[in-house]
Amino acid sequence: MLKQLQGICHRLEDGEDLVQATIIKHAGSTPRSVGSKMFVRRDGSVIGSIGGGLVEFEMQQLAREIFATGKARIETFDLSGEDAATTDQMICGGRLEFLLEYLSAEPEDSREFRKMVTAIQEGKKSYLIKALDTKGDTVSQMERCLIGKGSLVFGSFPGSDSWIPQLTSETDRKKSPVIATVEGKRFFVEPTVPPGTVYLFGAGHVSRPVAELAAMVEFQTVILDDRSDFANKERFPKANRIIVIPSYENLFSGLHIDDDSYLVIVTRGHLHDKTVLEQSLRTKAGYIGMIGSKRKQHLVYEELLGKGFTKEDLERVHNPIGLDIHAETPEEIAVSIVAELINARSRIGH
């Protein structure tokens, strides 16, 4: 999300207007989920994807009308009908509802995107709320605002302030964008969520490709190791933070660990791994994974059970870490770990 928002922000600030197509509702088998976006430029080229094929082609055609009128509209596509059955471009069998909006290069629109980018970069959750008051398939009034910590960050809220907690709680329960109705008015509410943070304990040969791949799929990455010749910017150029620790004791005193935190334990020895795991189990991390064999797992778990941890505590741990793809090289192991992180993120997010 962050990379896409930054790119759109730059285009608007550089004077380019766009049409934004957002999936606001879906049913059945569809290529992308609610909240997925595609941006259409005046030349018809696109940024992002809502699944490819026939739907994206139709969005490119509709964008011409949006550029001409400057008005938003809602469109529904049935992917289970005759058109879907006869085309070789998309066979999904679901139903999609889209919101198409004109984004002008005026300062107002670019400021909205800049506020969202800033919120994500600062690690602050916010909510973009849009009023869906429609006449036919045209949105007669696209009022929208950005809410952060219960207060207005940008724009004006099109309704009573007392509605805001109800609307934001809808997305918090479902962990995804929703259409919510309050007193007969429909709103589309999108949470703008900072990317999860992967904490890599150990800066060895597996951590390097894990950090690279995690950054590619928009995780924040923090590297922790007690060796400065391993934990440095030269080895981890894309890391958001590198911490050279005095030891693996008292690791979490300066770290903010919550359910958007992913702890990857890949130190240089099982004693360090055990030390990190023992501390990790006392946190609220959404994911804990530890590298190693079943034999190592048994030895570490027996020690932790002896220290008062329960079997339920240990069931939180992904060990051996990573999806089982028969990985052997550090790079293959990294693929398996990051694939598991993506899977965990999707479950935490929904």
Provide an overview of this structure.
- The protein is α/β, with parallel strands linked by helices.
- Among the domains are: 18-103, no CATH class; 197-349, Rossmann fold (3-Layer(aba) Sandwich).
- 34% of the residues lie in helices and 27% in strands.
- The chain is built from ten helices and 18 strands.
- α1 packs antiparallel against α4 (107-121) and α6 crosses α10.
- The protein is elongated and about 65 Å long.
- Residues 85-91 have low confidence and may be disordered.
Can you tell me the CATH superfamily of the domain at 197-349? Answer: NAD(P)-binding Rossmann-like Domain
Strand content: 25-35%
Q: What is the name of the CATH class of the domain at 197-349?
A: Alpha Beta
Question: Which radius of gyration do the C-alpha atoms yield?
Answer: 23 Å
Q: Name the poorly predicted regions.
A: 85-91
Please count the beta strands (DSSP E, at least 2 residues each).
Answer: 18
Q: Which overall shape is indicated by the principal axes computed on the Cα atoms?
A: elongated
Helix content: 25-40%
SSE sequence, one letter per element: HEEEHEHEHEEEEEHEEEHEEEHEHHEH
Q: Helix segment count?
A: 10
Largest sheet: 6 strands, parallel
Determine the N-to-C terminus distance.
16 Å
Q: Features of this protein?
A:
elongated, alpha/beta, 6-stranded parallel sheet, Rossmann fold, 350 residues, single chain
Q: Short description, anyone?
A:
The chain is α/β, with parallel strands linked by helices.
Give the SSE map.
Elements: H1 2-13, E1 18-27, E2 37-40, E3 46-48, H2 53-69, E4 73-78, H3 82-86, E5 95-103, H4 107-121, E6 126-131, E7 133-135, E8 138-141, E9 144-148, E10 151-155, H5 164-174, E11 178-182, E12 185-192, E13 197-201, H6 207-216, E14 220-225, E15 241-244, E16 261-265, H7 270-280, E17 287-290, H8 294-306, H9 311-314, E18 317-318, H10 330-349
